[in-house]
Amino acid sequence: MTEKKRTRQPNGASSIYLGKDGKWHGRVTVGVRDDGKPDRRHIERKTKAEVTKAVREMERARDEKKLRKPGQSWTVQAWLEHWVENIAKPYVSENTYDGYEVDVRVHLVPGLGAHKLARLEPEHLERFYRNMQDSGSSAGTAHHVHRTVRVALGEAVRRGHVPTNAAEIAKAPRLEEADIEPYTIEEVQSLLVKAANLRNSARWVVALALGLRQGEALGLHWEDLDLDAGYVRIRKNRLRPKYAHGCGDDPCGRKAGYCPKREQIRREHKFTKSRAGRRTVDLPGPLIKFLRQHREEQERERIAAGIDWEDKGYVFASPTGGPLSLNTDFHVWKRLLRDAGVRDGRLRDARHTAATVLLILGVPDVVVDAIMGWEPGGAERVRARYMHVTGTMLRKVAQQVGDALWEPPKTN
Fold first, then answer.
1. Which CATH number does the domain housing residue 146 bear?
2. Burial group, residue 162, by CB count within 10 angstroms (0-12, 13-18, 19+)
3. Each residue of 83-137: pLDDT tens digit?
4. Same domain (yes/no): 111, 217
5. Among 238, 211, 407, which Cα is nearest to 329's?
6. Nearest to 353, CA basis, from 141, 190, 143
7. CA-to-CA dists, residue 256 to 251, 293, 324, 326, 399, angstroms
8. What is the pTM of this model?
């Protein structure tokens, strides 16, 4: 039986026909090209049954929006470098961009860059994460890289460059949840005693009493405080500095951050982006007293600095009024722990401590969220991570249970 002569299909319909080369061909309209003409994909098989099956599969992928767009065939390297510089950079914060850029340049491009973007598979990513950790990277670093590539591939899916996000399917590196033990009231008191001997001692009172994030504390300006009314407005975040060489035609040979003529190329602070992060917190009476004393000490430093004073309005400033470095601030915290004879811990543990104190005091959850700057939608999960049931609390509950069950009833 001879095949019927090829007839013209309606516009947009798929066609299957026997070519002069003896092979079966299919044409599927999947969209519109950049020049406005129909994008018709060609399929070639040996038999009619094979080409029919392939045509139906392409039609299904088209209808489910899982078909790759025509045009540039991206490699993983090309897409990631394009994404981080042209898509992510204009729309994310400086700190977020820095994290993305390091993940792409240091880890993803060397490890996965040669793959075709459309052929990247979950197994490629999983092996890559294992190789990272085998080479010495921590699980936290591998997990951060996973989050970055997931965001980048998600954008590729939205733009039609790949049908699926391989990072959504791949198993992320496993993170062991660290056991966090907040500082006890006695440990906090020891820290406050030693902090009194430090410059900017009120910085650590604020950390332990209010639980401000590091960037929030170092981004405070005097205009954000009303000590007479007794409140502070958290609105700004101190950004990590970034430098460029200033040595010009006579290069110093050092990294930009150590250049004697280095130039700051990043703004010092940004406004807090989330609604929950922008908040007003009432100040405890003793903290107001500490802050008044701190303002008097800073005024004496201003007079001593004379014309060298930078009048930028920071609550916690350098001896000449400039902003504090986040790295220096961290090392002062570590020294404070050693001097106070208190076990080592992260700066963020001070925030855990402040949250746990609120739990001990029985402060309602909605008030805790407002003080700590947690978004209402995800506050319950964050609250569980930051507010810790202490041994003292458990002993108190055990005593209450014992009294209720074994205490003899009182008689009139």
1. 1.10.150.130
2. buried
3. 999 999 998 888 888 899 999 999 999 999 999 998 899 999 999 999 999 999 9
4. no
5. 238
6. 190
7. 10, 38, 19, 17, 60
8. 0.65
